[in-house]
Amino acid sequence: MSDSQFAVITTSGKQFTVTPGSKIIVDRIEAEIGSTVTLDNVLLAGSGEGDTSSVQVGTPNLSGASVKAKVVAHNRAKKVIIFKKIRRTGYMKKQGHRQDVSHLMIESINL
């Protein structure tokens, strides 16, 4: 398990390229701060030396592959403003939304 490993994982309908030691922000995961979570949806894995012979591609997921991550924090993302307007009628509506997110630190990639 060298540090030059990478993997493409999917969680909450989004894909992330991760390496050991990297930090990612995902939709809220129901886990305690400081606990370890296992992400099993690994789409692709390989080493970072640049040769393509070490890349494994799943159909759609790699069987037996997983990524272990530590939950660092639970926060809320930046506010997204939703503004609707219909011209010449006086209709204006403004809403805001803040998504609950979790900060994860990737500990290891297991193939």
Explain what you see.
The chain is 0% helix and 59% strand. It is an all-beta fold. The chain has one domain (5-110). Strands 2-1-5-6 form a four-stranded antiparallel beta sheet, with no helix packed on it. Strand 5 (42-47) and strand 6 (56-57) form a beta hairpin. It is elongated, with a radius of gyration of 19 Å. The termini are close together.
- The tally of structural domains comes to 1
Shape: elongated
What percentage of amino acids are in beta strands? over 45%
List low-pLDDT spans.
none
Q: Which structural class best describes the helix and strand composition?
A: mainly beta
Tell me about the largest β-sheet: 4 strands, antiparallel
Note the total helix count: 0
First-to-last CA distance: 9 Å
Strand order of the largest sheet: 2-1-5-6
Helix content percent band: under 10%
**Topology as H/E string?**
EEEEEEEEEE
Instruction: Report the mean per-residue pLDDT as an integer.
Output: 91
Write down how many β-strands occur, each being a DSSP E stretch of 2 or more residues: 10
Question: What is the radius of gyration?
Answer: 19 Å
